[in-house]
Amino acid sequence: MTRVKRGTIANKRRKNVLKHTKGFCWGRKSKFKAAKEALLHAWTYAYRDRKVKKRTFRQLWQIRINAACREQGITYSRFIEALKKNKIDIDRKVLSELAKDHPEIFTKIVEKAKA
Question: What are the 10-residue block averages of pLDDT along the chain, 115 residues in total?
C-alpha cells in the first residue's frame, strides 16, 4: 500500500479554524487547540442568542405598546384583548413602530379597539 501524507488536509483544517477565530483575544486566535475550544463556545452562544434576540425584541415591543396605551388610558393587556375581540390582526412589531413613529395612527387603533 502506498504512503499517504495528510499534511495538506490537516493544515487546511487548522487554517480554517484559525480563520474563524480572527479577532479573538490572546492565544485563542493563534493557537489551534485554544481556538478550537473558543469556537465551540462561541458557536454555542451564537445559536442560543439568536433565540434570545427574538425574545428581547418582543419584550421591547410590548414595553413600547404599553407606554403608548397608558397615555390613551388603557393597559397593555386590555388593549391586546380588545384587539383580539374586534378581530384587528396587527402584530406587536408593527404596533410598536406605529406607537413610536406615528402616534396619531396608533391613537385611532386604540379608539377602534375600545369601541
Answer: 88 96 95 97 97 98 97 96 95 97 96 92
